[in-house]
């Protein structure tokens, strides 16, 4: 079995030792290379084969978003887990929307959450790469596109029928003209949909102006229902159906 090749970008030797110790406790075969600065990390990304990056946002030559963005831009095909302070959680959540796979609060790192985060990050990254190859991902946002939404919708419809569950649809719209600003607004709308959607859902950017969420829930009433439309799971979900439901933002 080949080792997982991890680039640990961490300037503090004590924190780096703590992370490496947690990795050792996980029992995996790992090959850890450490970079202490952003410049060093970028040089290693350009010259080394890396499976995963553990990235502290605060480095001697960069901080916060200005640490993540250059690393992500230079290593778009490598999953990144952010290592953050407790007061950086909201920033880390935003950077996950911008391409990081996950984040961990440094004071809470031990073997179990670290192992789970690494396994999930690698798996999600592989699934995302496969989805991009299949043409079901919207590149600017990383969300499902309309094709991916319809594929997921059919699976959710079958699940709703199998468990006699409710099937709910919501479509949100933004008419902001600037494309980059519109992308950010749609990502923000996606976050609000995801918070209330429950575990069984598909959320997608179905065209340049709209995001949609389809949700399965076995309960007769749940939080998503108040702002959504109940649809018949006996009928296929189509874009024509989606077009009949719209909430303007």
Description:
This protein has 249 residues and is an alpha/beta fold. The chain has two domains: 130 residues, Response regulator (Rossmann fold), CATH 3.40.50.2300; 103 residues. The protein contains eight helices and twelve strands. The strands form three sheets. Strands 2-1-3-6-7 form a five-stranded parallel beta sheet, sandwiched between helices. Helix 2 packs parallel to helix 3. The longest helix is centred in the middle third of the chain and has 23 residues. The protein is elongated, with a radius of gyration of 20 Å.
Give a topology summary.
Blueprint: E1 4-9, H1 13-25, E2 30-35, H2 38-47, E3 52-56, E4 58-59, E5 62-63, H3 65-74, E6 80-84, H4 89-97, E7 102-105, H5 111-133, H6 146-162, E8 166-173, H7 179-197, E9 201-205, E10 210-217, E11 229-230, H8 239-243, E12 247-248
Parallel strand pairs: 1-2, 1-3, 3-6, 6-7, 8-12
Antiparallel strand pairs: 4-5, 8-10, 8-11, 9-10
Helix pairs in contact: 2-3
Total count of domains: 2
Rg, nearest Å: 20 Å
N- to C-terminal separation?
Answer: 51 Å
The CATH superfamily of the largest domain is known as Response regulator
Computed structural class: alpha/beta
**Unreliable stretches, pLDDT < 50, 5 or more residues?**
220-226
Helix content: 40-55%
**Total number of helical segments?**
8
The largest sheet has its strands arranged as 2-1-3-6-7
- What is the element string, with H for helices and E for strands? EHEHEEEHEHEHHEHEEEHE
Globally, the shape reads: elongated
User: Biggest β-sheet, characterized?
Assistant: 5 strands, parallel
Care to count the β-strands?
12
Strand content: 15-25%
The CATH top-level class label of the largest domain: Alpha Beta
**Might you state the CATH topology name of the largest domain?**
Rossmann fold
Task: Quickly give the CATH architecture of the largest domain.
Answer: 3-Layer(aba) Sandwich
Average pLDDT, rounded to a whole number, is: 84
